[in-house]
Design a protein that fits this description.
This protein is an alpha/beta fold. The protein has two domains: 17-114, no CATH class; 123-158, no CATH class. Helices cover 18% and strands 13% of the residues. The chain contains three helices and four strands. The protein has helices at residues 70-81, 107-114, 141-149, and strands spanning 27-33, 48-52, 63-64, 89-94. Strands 3-2-1-4 form a four-stranded parallel beta sheet, sandwiched between helices.
Amino acid sequence: MIPNTTKSPDYKLPFNNILADKNKSNFELVITRFNENIGWSDNYEKFRTIYNKGKSDLNCEYIQRENFGRDGETILYHIIHNWDNLSDVTFFAQAALNDRNDQILSMDDVDNCINCKNMHVCKKRRGPPKHEKYYDFPKNLGQIWSEIFNEPYSGNYT
């Protein structure tokens, strides 16, 4: 089990040996960070891309970004700016793992992603109301969800 990395700052995500002879073109760990400890990702240093939205206090390579749009902005930015050279597998993560009970990530989830056995999306257990809209976007969350996942949005998913 992956612990809450905010409460367990010395935790290191175990290295998956399937990556032993791989490089960043095969697997990339993309982290959105504000002020969190990212030591959990040190075993994946050669696969790691960090977008830092907080203080410039890291002792490793990172890309400084304005603190705007949370992790969704980072994911979109990374995909757009790396479209022609995306890794075979890209794992997007916030800098703190398992710090929220509604977004729990297990070691099996990580391994399955690395091994390309499935795509894992860490969904919240309770979503916003389906009629909610973002800014002036013409469609609401329920409509967008249905178009993407081809199923009705209930707001209660795991």
